[in-house]
Amino acid sequence: MEIDILIALEDLGYQGPLMEDGALDAVVIKGAASPEFTKLSAWIVSELRLYLKLEENVHATNCPSEAEGFQLEMSGLLSELACPYSCLTSGHVTQRFLSRTDCLLLITFLLSELDASRMILVNKPQRKAQESGSPVFQELKGICMALGMSKPPPNITMFQFFSGIEKKLKEAISRVPPNHVGEPLMKKPFGPVHMEKVEAINQALVNEYEVRRKMLLKRLDVTVQSFGWSERAKTQAEKLSRVYQPLRSALLTNSNISVAHLLAARQDISKILRTSSGKMREKTACAINKVDELQTSCK
Questions:
Q1: Which branch of life, at top level (predicted)?
Q2: What is the DSSP letter of 271?
C-alpha cells in the first residue's frame, strides 16, 4: 500500500520530504501525533479544495499536542465527503487516525478523492472556463495584446511561446531610454520553498488588509448615513443614494495583490516619502487643508 501511495503522490505533484525511502512509514506509525503526517494530509486537502466546494478544511499541526485539533478537522471533512470507511468515521474523535492501518487508509481515500476530482474536471471542463479562459489564459492574452503579438498557432510549445514574449519585451525595452524600467526590487531567484513562504506571507497580509478595508468601509457607510439625519438632508436622501451607491459598490474589501506584483516591482517602489514632505503636500493639498493651515496659523 505504501508504494501505491508514493506513486499516487508523485503523479499528483507532491514533492515533500515523505517521498524519501522509509519516510512515509515512519510518520503513519505516529499518525495524528506526527506533524509531518498532518502536513501531508493538509496538502492533499488543499489540493482537493481546488476542485470541490468544501466547507471543512484541515490544517497541519506544529507539535503532537495539537493532534486533537487535526482529528476534529479531519473528522468533519470525512463526514462532508461521505467517507465509507467506518473505522475512520466512528468511535471517539481523539482515538481516530492513530494506527498505521487507519492512517494509510485515510491517505488512500483522500488521494482517490483528489484523483477522481481531477479526472472529472478534465472530462467535464467548466463551461465558463471554456468561454472566457482561465485567469492565467487571460493574463497571457493581455500580455500578447500589450506587446502587439499576433495570435500564436495551436501547435506552439510553451518554450516557444515564452521565448516570443521575451523577444518582444527586449524589443520594447530597447526603444525606451536607459533605466526607464528600473532595476527589479527582488534580484535573487526564488525556489519552490521561497515561493511557498512568500505566498504564505502575502496571504497573511491580504487577510489583514481585508479586515482593515471592511472597518474603513463601515466607517464610511456610517459617516454617509449621518449626513442624512438632518431634516433638510432627508429630502435629498434619494439623490444622495443615487450618487453614493455606484461609488460605494466599486470599493471592494478583497485585495488583488499577489506574488506576481512583488516579482514585477522595481526598486523605486521601495522609496519611502513622508506624507508631510513638500512633494507629497503638493499632490495632496486641497481646500480643506488650506482651512486647517489658516486656523493653525491664527492660533
A1: Eukaryota
A2: -
Q: What percent of the residues of the chain are helix, what percent strand, and what percent coil, each to the nearest 5?
A: 70, 0, 30
Q: List pLDDT tens digits, range 158-197.
A: 888 888 888 888 888 888 887 787 888 888 887 888 888 9
Residue 192 and residue 227: Cα distance in Å, rounded?
A: 52
Taking alpha carbons only, the member of 184, 251, 260 closest to residue 221 is 251
pLDDT of residue 129: 45
Instruction: Name the CA dihedral angle for 111, 114, 116, 120, rounded to a multiple of 10 degrees.
Output: -170
Residues 179, 174: Cα–Cα separation, whole Å: 11
The closest alpha carbon to 8, from 62, 47, 56, belongs to 47
Single pTM value for the model: 0.44
The one-letter amino acid at 26: A
Cell numbers standing for residue 120: 472529472
User: Which whole number is the average pLDDT over 91-113?
Assistant: 90
- β-bridge mates for residue 184, sequence order: 266
Q: Which three cell numbers stand for residue 72?
A: 476534529
d(CA 192, CA 173): 29
CA Rg value for the chain: 27
Q: Cell triple for residue 29?
A: 506509525
Amino acid at 278: G
The amino acid that residue 116 corresponds to is A
